[in-house]
Structure formats: C-alpha cells, structure tokens
Design the sequence.
C-alpha cells in the first residue's frame, strides 16, 4: 500500500504566493512566514507588489506576490527563485515565470484558468504552461475557487465574501505540503481578526478544508519537512524592517530618557513607520502626520530644539523635499534622525520597488558644506540596531543622521530575538546645564566640547540658558550672526571635523570569510543577506573570498582603509550605478575597485552574482 | 522657604527682560521696531517667564525678530516657521510659543504650513507682518500686493489678485484673527496680549510700513490725520463706533455692513452693532475683516474673532493620557513581551 505520502526532509525552501492584488496574497504569505517562524524556522520574506492598489482584475499589472524563504538555519535572504508557486490566476503564472526553479511545484487555481482568464493575461493558447516553456515544472491543478465555495456554502456569507477566503484554502494546502500544524495559523487568524469572530470562523474553515483536501487526495507524491534547529534561548517574534526601525527609535528614546517625536507624511514604502509610531501612544510617543514632507521635518526640528529625540520618516522624493530643512539641522547642530526608506527613482520612479540610489542624495544632497552622519541598515532586524545607533549618534553628537533603509528590508520580515535593552549602550545627550563647565552667563550656543566638538543642548524651559539659533552662520565664540570670512572658514572646518570625529565612537568595520583571501566583496545597507550568501556559495566552490558589509557610511569606520588596502581585488556591489564605490574612491584614491551594479528594482540574484564574481 | 516661593511666583518681568543685547539691525524708520517693542511690552504684561518662551521665525526682515529677544529663539527657513513652532509646542505644551513672520513668508512660500497650523488650532501666536512687499530681497511684489502693483518684479504692474490674510485665516477655520497697525503701539500691544491669551492659533495681522521699498503703503488708513475716520477698533462687547468724534458707527443693512453717523438719518446709538468676537459663526467676522478692501468702510482693528475650540496639543496630550490609563508605566520591553506574536525558545 502506498497510502502514505512520503515525507522528504529539506534544509530550506522558497515559496511564492501570487495572485491579484485583491486576492490577499500578502496576508497569506505573512501568515505562512509567521507560523513557520513560530514553528522554529528561520524566515526571510519579500513582498513584491504593484504600486496600483487594484489594477484591473486578472491582468499582468495587478499581480501581487509574496515570497518567503523558510529554513532550518542560514536564511539570509528571501531566495532568488521559488521551489513552490501558488498561482491564483494565469497572470500570476506568467509574471512569475522567471522566478521559478527547474522542477518547482506550481499549485494553480483551475477555476481561474478559463479561456477568459487566459486572455486577460495575454495568453495566446489554452495551454499556459507550454506557452511559457514551463515543461519542467510540476503543475498541481486544484479547483481552489469552487472548493472554497463548497467549503463555505453554509456559512451564510455572500459569494463575494466567500471568495475572499480562497487565499486561506491555498494556505491550508501549503500547510499540508510542508507539514505545518494549522493550529498555529488558527491562532494567528484569531489574533488578526480579534474583533470579527465570523471572519475567524470562515477563514479557519477554508484553511482546514484546504489542508484536508491536500491530505485526503495525496495532492503531491511527497510532502516536505523543514528541520528546525534549536535557536538560542529567549523570546522571539517576527518583524519587518519598518517596524524594527520604529522600535529602535522607541528604545533609544527610552534609554536616553527623552520624549520621542516623529513628524512625517505618508509615502511608500515608509508609511508603516508613521503608522506604527502613531499606535504607540501607549508608550507616550508623539507621532504627527503633517501637511507635507517639509512640515514633517520642520516639526521634528522644532521638537529637537525643544529636547526630544526627533525623527522624520520618508522615501527618496520626500528626502528631496526635506533637503533645505536638513541643512538647517546641520547649521543649528540639533539631533535629528531622518529615515529614508529607499525606493526606485528618480522622481516618482517605482514606489514599491527597492534600490540603493539615494546614497549620494543622503551624503551630498544639500546646499553649502553640509556634512552629516549616514547610516545604512543591513537587514530587517538590523533596522532596530541601526535606528538605535542613529538616535544615539544624533543625540550625543548633536547632528542630523540620515538612516538609509530600503523597500526590501523595510517590508521584508525575519525572526527577531527580543533584545535585552540593558545590553545596549547608554545614550547621554550633552545637556548644557550638566555638561558645560563654565557659568550659565558665560555660555554661548556654539561653544563646544573640546574633544568631540559637540555644542551643548540648551532646552527651552531651562532657566538661564535662553539663546537664539537659526540658519544664518554664527560666530564660533559668541554665537551671534556673523559673515566674517575667517569665522566662516572655521565653522565650515569645525562642522566637518565634528562629524569626522564620530568615527572614534562607532564600532570598527568587520570582515568575514577567509582570512587569506585576495578578493573582498564590499556591500552596504539592505543587500547584506544576498551578499553573505554569495560569499558562502563562492567559498563552496572552493574559492577564497572575504566580505565587508558597511552599516556606517559617514563617517566610515576608522579601520576602513586598513581593510581595503589588504586585498588585490575589491568588488563593490550595490543597487545603483556606483555611489559607494565612488565614495570610497573619493576617500582612498589608491585603491582599485571593481563595480557590480544592478538597478532593476529587484533584489540581487545570488546565483547571478556568484557567476559574475567568480570571473572577476 | 515660604517667602522665597512667594517671591518667585511674584516675579514681575518688565519689557527690558525680553530684550536681547544684540544691536537691532532693521533700516532706520522701519515699522518692525515698533512691533518688536510691542512684543516686549505684551510679554511683560502677560508676565511670561523668558525661559519658558520661544519665538520662532521664518525668513525675511520680520523673521530677524527672535535675535532681538532674550527668550529662546529659533530663526528657521523660509516659510516654515509655523511648522517649526508646531513641533516646539507639541514637544512641550507648557511653553509660550510665538511666531514672527511676514506676508511673503507665511502667505507665499509657507502658505501650506500657515493654513494647516490655523486649521489644527495649535496654541501658537502668529504675528504676521504685512507690508505688501518683499523687503529683504529689495522690492518685489508679495502675495498681498494689490492688483496692478508696480515693483521690480512687476514693472508693468501685477496681473493677479492678492490674498487677504483674514480670508485665508477664516478659510482655514481660524479661531482667532486680529489686526493692528505698527505705529499704533498701544492698540497693537493690547491686541498681542489678547492673542497670547487665546488658546489656539492666533493670527495678528500687523500692517507694517517698509520705509525703503513700500513706504506709505498703509497711509490711507494709518496716517494720524484720518486714522480715526478710516479705522474702527473692535472690542468684544463694545459698540462698533469710530470717528474723530466717536459719532460714527456700524450697522447691518440687509446682509451688509454700513457706516452711519449717530444722530443722522434716524440712527441712534441703540442701532449700532455690539461686537461679538466669540460667536462661532464667522460670517460677520469675515465681513468685518474685509472692511476697507473694496468699500469705504473703516478698516477693522483689534480682535475680530476669538472663539474657544479644542487645541491640537492639548487634545494630543489627552489622547496619550487616555491610552496610557489602560496600561500605565509600560516600558518598551513590557510592550514587546505583551505583544501577540511572541514565542519562547527554551
């Protein structure tokens, strides 16, 4: 008897849920990744959705995808290509053609593969698999729509609402395929729709029926089990980069003992930061949705002057609008965290796609000599630490900090061990009444700490330290408006030196990989997960290679040059036309750099990079 | 101990306490000097501690004002004063927050922040210096310059209509609007005091003279010879009377305001309107504020509208308090540990 379905063990798998933007694929993907994380897997997710909220149904423009990679360990990115695709319609199959591995499983909804559906997705024949040259995949036809209808026929819901549960039926099938206990999914649904018990009930019914359908019909010859590896003891959750960024700010404000203030304006893909912080009134956060991007940063500057940890969150076009005010924060030397969740540009560009094309804007996009700190978060989870660091540097060094994340890590999620805040470094702002050694009468707003060149923070409400600052150049000693030539030169030099000195307060740059390698891969920001896997695959092929991934961009870690000069071949890989490579060359003119650049709005393809780098 | 406390609460500030040591550098004869002096006097009358007072500005001649204050001061960038002040006030609602701005700063480049600050009714006092010209850039027309106004950037006259600040304020559902003339220091000070006492965004349009680039622009009403005939000082609860002999008054004639002479054409003092600045319906406030624009009515000065309404920063604080009542004293770690998607690895 072969009544039993075989279970195959896997180290890791990449699954892509894909359908119309109204099909609930983002929710399905999120539920599957969360339940896998709770089950004990490492996860990395990649929501890939269109900018249109609802493009015409069934068309190629409207396809919304959610890729999740699940594994026992070493899951650093959401994977190049999928082992399993759930295609809710022909458009989803067509759009994801290039995201499929050879031999991958394609579960598709036969009810939405009619001639009409095929025409909407611009298929010319009635055999989409052959038309797309997909002979090597394993198509698994399932009548998802009609079975969902049957499943919920007695639910009392109308047809439209019933069809909304198609995604849960599919999730049930996938849970069966990967031997996931659906109890976790049930619990997640209960949490998600706490206030709508009817919805919980119907979704669980569709989920269970999907699971049972797979089980009863032995839908595939084998199901899969992904090992779980015992992670370190502690409490875990799954988190995306935007939420982690918001949390990093909250943690830093709590550590520093200051009020957290966010001034912001909705913009894809950064809006979640505003939304999360708006929810956190329970923690006393003040998050203001302002009338525009400029008001977002200007309220933050006002709040910073008034003693808050002030931040503004945006994406590239919003950063352009904030440039002038960012210069004001440089000039007034106030702490400010500016979060730029980078997206495809220029102009409106590709709002829901990710790239690293704002580095130059962050470094140089202001009038005048206007140095500030630039930090780039490396993974969804690292957004927490990077936001914490950005806040710490801003508050302690009285400077604006641009924190660059990107759409990929902002929306992508991974498992996060709840941090112990006691292990995080303290944050001590230079309050004038505490840190200034002279008398209140002798204090002037631009007097500085001799070592750090940081000016002191005189917060309104503090008696004896009334002062005026602003965008006009000030005298180094008296703090009064000045256009004296020598003074301006001195102030320009001082502002620059102040930022440079921060290198002494950040960690040294790490290099991983082979100690005796000749080749160094260099990356920065949100490409960490992909480049790390590239390095490991190259090592697997027997070639020695090292990898340095930068979080601190300006100032660079103090050992940067010592690292770079050791390698014969340096490959700087980034999702722009070479910003970081040019930046490194502008600092260190005797190093030689190979550039690898892709600006497609898509994550790096690990296999493509491995092939390219092997030949460099 | 007790004596010391009493002394502290009884600190009386004088205008001098709000003056910084910096030399004031406006052009000799500029209307800004008078306005600055009124700000000092108003603050002294309000007796607000200088260290709990923040003056924010944008860019322009008027926006240099914070440097001449011995309070906390922030000289911002062009047009953004209202936004910066919003941040200050929300960050610390206990501070007295004033904005010094001009017609270009607040009605052109900063128009968006101006209307939204007014709409939110955040408790800041906006002193809007209106001289109908760009002075700091040496004489271009502004959004309040009259149609046909000839300036360096409109050598053949402008072909656009100006904003009327009160209309903009009321269009944004403003709760406080007042008007003053720079040279009329007593009334200007009185109006500023009223503006500061108002909870919510108060807009004081000060008709200010730019002696270099637009000298005499407000002379038609500001000149002492005919000011009494050309203006009416409005005070809540008082009759709307004006004129050198205080024998002129305002009445309603159908839907419109009309200036009459008491004792002529059968009009008596009883017919004269009593000013109600606090009525929610702003229809009459709009009409009062537009007197003198396209008609021969006297220009209204003083507090035209002052209506109680919830202020943004107070409502914000209340909301935080409301939410926190459910889970007092929660730390970030408490919050994380109480969230729903959390699991333990043992």
Sequence:
């Amino acid at each position: 008897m072969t009544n039993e379905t075989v279970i195959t063990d896997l180290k890791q798998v990449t699954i892509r849920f894909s359908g119309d933007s109204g099909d609930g694929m983002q929710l399905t993907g999120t539920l599957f990744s969360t339940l896998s994380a709770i089950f004990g897997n490492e996860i990395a997710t990649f929501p890939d959705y269109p900018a249109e909220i609802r493009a015409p149904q069934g068309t190629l423009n409207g396809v919304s995808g959610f890729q999740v990679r699940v594994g026992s360990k070493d899951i650093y990115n959401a994977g190049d290509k999928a082992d399993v695709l759930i295609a809710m319609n022909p458009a989803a199959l067509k759009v994801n053609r290039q995201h499929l591995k050879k031999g991958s499983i394609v579960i598709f909804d036969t009810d939405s593969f009619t001639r009409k559906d095929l025409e909407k997705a611009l298929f010319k024949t009635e055999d989409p698999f052959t038309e797309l040259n997909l002979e090597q995949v394993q198509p698994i036809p399932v009548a998802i729509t009609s079975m969902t209808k049957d499943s919920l026929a007695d639910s009392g819901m109308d047809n439209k609402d019933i069809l909304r549960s198609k995604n849960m039926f599919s999730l049930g099938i996938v849970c069966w395929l990967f031997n996931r206990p659906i109890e976790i999914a049930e619990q997640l649904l209960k949490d998600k729709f706490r206030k709508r018990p009817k919805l919980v009930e119907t979704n669980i019914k569709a989920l269970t029926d999907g699971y049972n359908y797979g089980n009863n019909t032995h839908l595939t010859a084998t199901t899969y089990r992904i090992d779980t590896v015992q992670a370190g003891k502690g409490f875990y959750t799954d988190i995306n980069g935007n939420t982690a960024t918001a949390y990093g700010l909250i943690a830093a404000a709590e550590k520093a003992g200051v009020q957290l203030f966010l001034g912001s304006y909705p913009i894809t893909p950064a809006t979640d930061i505003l939304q999360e912080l708006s929810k956190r009134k329970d923690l006393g956060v003040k998050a203001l949705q302002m009338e525009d991007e400029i008001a977002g940063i200007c309220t933050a500057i006002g709040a910073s002057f008034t003693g808050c940890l002030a931040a503004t969150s945006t994406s590239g076009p919003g950063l352009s609008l904030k440039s002038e005010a960012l210069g004001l924060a440089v000039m007034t030397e106030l702490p400010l965290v500016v979060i730029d969740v980078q997206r495809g540009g220029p102009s409106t560009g590709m709002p829901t796609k990710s790239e690293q094309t704002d580095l130059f804007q962050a470094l140089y996009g202001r009038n005048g000599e206007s140095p500030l700190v630039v930090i780039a978060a490396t993974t969804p989870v690292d957004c927490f630490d990077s936001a914490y660091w950005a806040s710490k540097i801003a508050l302690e060094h009285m400077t604006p900090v641009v924190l660059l994340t990107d759409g990929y890590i902002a929306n992508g999620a991974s498992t996060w061990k709840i941090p112990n805040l006691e292990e995080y470094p303290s944050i001590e702002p230079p309050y004038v009444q505490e840190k200034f050694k002279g008398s209140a009468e002798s204090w002037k707003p631009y007097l500085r700490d001799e070592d750090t060149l940081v000016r002191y923070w005189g917060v309104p409400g503090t008696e004896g330290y009334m002062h005026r600052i602003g965008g006009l150049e000030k005298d180094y000693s008296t703090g009064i408006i000045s256009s004296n030539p020598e003074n301006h030169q001195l102030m320009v030099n001082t502002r620059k030196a102040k930022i440079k000195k921060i290198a002494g307060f950040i960690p040294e740059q790490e290099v991983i990989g082979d100690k005796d390698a000749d080749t160094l891969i260099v990356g920065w920001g949100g490409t960490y997960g992909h480049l790390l896997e590239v390095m490991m695959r190259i090592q697997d092929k027997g070639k020695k290679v090292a990898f340095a991934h930068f979080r601190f961009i300006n100032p660079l870690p103090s050992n940067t040059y010592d690292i770079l000069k050791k390698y014969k071949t340096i490959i700087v890989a980034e999702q722009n036309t070479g910003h970081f490579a040019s930046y490194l060359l502008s600092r260190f003119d005797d190093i030689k750099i190979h550039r690898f650049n892709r600006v497609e709005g898509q994550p790096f393809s690990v296999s493509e990079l491995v092939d390219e780098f092997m030949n460099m | 101990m007790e004596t010391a406390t009493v002394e502290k609460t009884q600190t009386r500030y004088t205008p001098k306490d709000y003056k910084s040591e910096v030399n004031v550098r406006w052009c000799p004869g500029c209307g800004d000097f008078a306005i600055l002096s009124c700000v000092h006097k108003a603050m002294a009358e309000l007796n607000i501690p200088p260290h709990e007072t923040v003056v924010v500005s944008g860019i322009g001649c008027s926006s240099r004002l914070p440097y001449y204050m011995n309070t906390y001061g922030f000289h911002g960038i062009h047009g953004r004063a209202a936004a910066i002040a919003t941040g200050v006030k929300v960050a610390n609602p206990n501070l007295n927050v004033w904005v010094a701005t001009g017609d270009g700063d607040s009605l052109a480049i900063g128009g968006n922040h101006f209307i939204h600050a007014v709409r939110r009714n955040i408790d800041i006092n906006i002193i809007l210096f209106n001289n109908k010209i760009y002075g700091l850039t040496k004489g271009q027309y502004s959004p309040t310059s009259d149609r046909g106004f000839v300036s360096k950037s409109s050598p053949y006259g402008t072909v656009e209509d100006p904003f009327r600040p009160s209309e903009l304020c009321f269009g944004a559902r403003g709760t406080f609007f007042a008007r003053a003339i720079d040279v009329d220091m007593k009334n200007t000070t009185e109006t500023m005091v009223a503006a500061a006492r108002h909870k919510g965004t108060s807009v004081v349009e000060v008709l200010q003279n730019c002696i270099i680039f637009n000298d005499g622009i407000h002379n038609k009403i500001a000149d002492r010879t005919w000011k009494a005939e050309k203006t009416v000082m409005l005070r809540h609860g008082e009759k709307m009377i004006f004129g050198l002999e205080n024998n002129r008054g305002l009445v309603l004639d159908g839907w419109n305001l009309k200036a009459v002479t008491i004792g002529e054409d059968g009009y008596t003092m009883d017919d004269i309107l009593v000013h109600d600045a606090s009525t929610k319906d702003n229809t009459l406030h709009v009409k009062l504020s537009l007197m003198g624009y396209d008609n021969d009515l006297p220009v209204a000065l003083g507090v035209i509208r002052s209506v109680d309404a919830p202020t943004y920063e107070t409502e914000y604080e209340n909301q935080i308090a409301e939410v926190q009542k459910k889970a007092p004293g929660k730390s970030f770690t408490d919050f994380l540990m109480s969230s729903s998607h959390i699991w333990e690895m043992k």
Remarks:
- Chain A is about 35% helix and 20% strand.
- The first strand of chain A starts at residue 6 and ends at 10.
